[in-house]
Amino acid sequence: MLPRDELLKTCENRETLARILDRAEDALRTWEITPTDFLSPPELAEAREMFSRLTEVQAISWGGYPQAERQRLAIARSELPLDTSLVAVTALEVAGNFLFDTATHRDFLGALLGTGIVREKTGDILVLGERGAQVIVVPELVEFLETNLTQVRSVPVKTRRIERSELRVQPPKKKEMTTVEASMRLDAIASAGFGMSRSKMSALISGGDVRVNWKEVNQASYTVKSGDLIALRGKGRLEVGEVATTKKQRYRVQLTRLR
What distance in Å separates the CA atoms of residue 257 and residue 249, rounded to the nearest whole number? Predict the structure, then answer.
């Protein structure tokens, strides 16, 4: 048996991680590769950290394309071979004429959930403007959605399975910058990277809008380091790169903003 209490005691997403442990124990017992539902980035980060502490089982994640935010895990005993081809995901095209009734990510998600499925069965949604969207889902929902997903907003749509090679993935927009700060406090680094005042950033941090490595951080004084990923709700992400100390004992920090 896995040490559930020890693994779960510090988890933010305790309920989700408990279900993942159930799947891990299934994998141990049956010697089969067991999948999870799609996980959000914070859930995925916690799951990866949890599996790094286990030797009996292993997990690999995949969401249909390399930059996917929402991904599934495939879990197996450590003795078994495991690669992303064993994580079952399928791509769908949701095609319609949205020229005069533009639909957003929220609209497509709402239409999906309106068919009666749950969010955990869907991965990323790639909005294609006036042409519709592409959606990653668990394979067992394909036929159901092809039949039942027929409208988004006021627009009739045709839903069909497509090859993952047909996904129209846009690479994230990157902006490289350098800042020099007196400390590596979260509010200082994040305000420089996202281009806003430190007081406004501090308010966003205390309000729960900022995550570091996908974990919510509410303290503006939290110390970040090279390799950290700072996510600000609605504004994208910030990668903390190389950190050097200047002659005046300040910190010169390389930052990459992703949008």
Answer: 25
